[in-house]
Structure formats: structure tokens, C-alpha cells
Model the fold of this input.
Amino acid sequence: MKISTRGRYAIRVMLDLAEHNTGEYIPLMDIAKRQDISEKYLEAIVASLSKNGFVFSMRGKGGGYQLSRTPQEYTVGSILRLTEGSFAPVACLENTPNKCERAGSCKTLKMWEGAYKAIEDYFNGITLQDLLEDAADVGNYVI
Done:
């Protein structure tokens, strides 16, 4: 499994919004500068985050973006699933129930299910708040 820049940048945007949450909308230009990411690239990411209710957006003067929930209500898993899709390591686990014709006799299925569960549990167990607290302890958090 490899997380794309889109997934990593989405987490960075969400962290930036959480860290600079003053109740005001944060211009995308400010996020792009702080995160050293192209504003144009971030536009597509925040559009997806906004469309899926992860952030609120407002156009015009005083506009920008802000989280729609508190940082502890977002898991890294939810952000990555939105940007990356399924964490399933093999195609047959992408749908429930598993419709693979070999599922009943597959000798590797339990292994793949275990890997899938480990990835899901790990990313679903980390919130934006956890990352903010870890960053405060370390100084800088790089994703």
C-alpha cells in the first residue's frame, strides 16, 4: 500500500485547519504557503473535502475553509479513505460480502483480511487531535 501525495496533502490541510482554528475561515493561499504546496493542487483536494462535508467553505472576502467538526472527530482513516479509496490490499476485499468465487477455498484470504484489518484499525485509531498533540510534543510533524 502506498499513500499518494493527494492523501498526504489532505491530512496536512486538515491538520493546518485544526491547528489554526480561530473560528474564522482560513484562505487556501495561507494554507498553501504554510504547507509549501501548490495552491492549484490544494484546490482539488479541498473541493473534495468540502463536497464530502469534511470542511466548510466560503467564497469572497473573509472566505476560505474551516473544519466542519472538532479535530477529535476526524480519523486519519476517514481522510485517507476519502482521498485514496479502499485500504483493501487485494481486490476481493473491496466489497462486502466478498464475492470472489475462490473465497471458500483461498488459502491466503485470512492473511489478506488480517492485513486489511490491521491497516484499518491503525488509521482509524488516529485522530487529527492525536496528530496535533504529537506535533506539540515533537515540535514539527511531517507527513
Summary: The chain has a mean pLDDT of 90. Strands lie at 55-58, 64-67. Residues 109-124 form the longest helix (16 residues). The CA atoms of residues 49 and 82 lie 8 Å apart.
